[in-house]
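Q: How would the structure tokens look for this protein?
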Amino acid sequence: MSTAAAASADEFSSRHTANFPALLQQLRASVLVSTYQAGRLVLLRAGQDRLNTHFRRFVRPMGLAAAAGKIALGAQGEILEFRNMPALAPRLPSATPHDAAYLLRRRHLTGAIDIHEMAYAGDGALWFVNTLFSCLCTLDDAHSFVPRWRPRFVGAYAPEDRCHLNGLGLRDGRPRYVTALGETDTAQGWRANKRDGGVLIDLEADAVVARGLSMPHSPRWHADRLWLLESGRGALVTLDPHSGERRDVARVPGFARGLDFVGPFALVGLSQLRESNAFTDIPLTDADAQRRSGVWVVDTRSGETVALLTFTGDVREIFAVQALVGQQYPDLLHDGELLETAYALPDAALRETAAALRA
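A: Here is the predicted structure in token form.
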């Protein structure tokens, strides 16, 4: 191995529990992890009884969304959308056969709006948190973004990050819950009370249903319960959407941000948050000096950590964690020759093309 290659391997090195690849195989899943700090999208895949960490380079990758056959990624100033081309997967070189190949199909320029969490609704529309303008948005062909909702306490659309709107959760296929770090209506106003000024908002009721949260992120409706991460405490919690009462299910050794579920298991992203990061001076930094970055797998029935991966190199901050259930060894391509020579056509055109090539 060359000196440069060795340095690169150290930069993105990791350790994991021995059971992590077996667990992914049991769940028939792989995991996408975004890290804006290191500028990478990481694919966690189990192959030949080993865990493969596959890195793709992007500029400030943050929000992730996945639905049948498609993935969306929010990056610096744009949203990239990928589509699975199953027929291409066997052509990708690998000791472990690929079972999915996501190719870049669309880039939508949003401008630098600090895109946070994203989700595909049941009707296929992509929703995303526009943190700079303090609103939820969708896309169309004519505009950078289309604002669809903003909190009642935010008086106007303005590029000022007034409340640090960040998390988005669906329920019954529709956007239902969001989190913000403060009920503030001034530029960067949320910073003054970031320790416990966080809120959870029910979009259907258009009301705050929980206050006093420590830097909440990643609201999720799963198994008939509402979950979220109190990042400032390193806690996975359940929350009663009517009373606002919350209960700790698990504590993890880092700034918990990025959450997905596969069956009874929660996949939780962890970040170190070094002292130069804006998200310091919170309960977590008071109590835990040995913060780690990686992915923790928590059994929601017991609150116990059952598997984990820790990044030991330059990956210090995780944003999103997204499971791909039913795809154990996918790849994601956004540059290179295959984008020029792999064609996705409607079925009728594909049959005609195949017939012409056989003639």
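The chain is about 10% helix and 45% strand.

The radius of gyration is 20 Å.

Upvote if useful.
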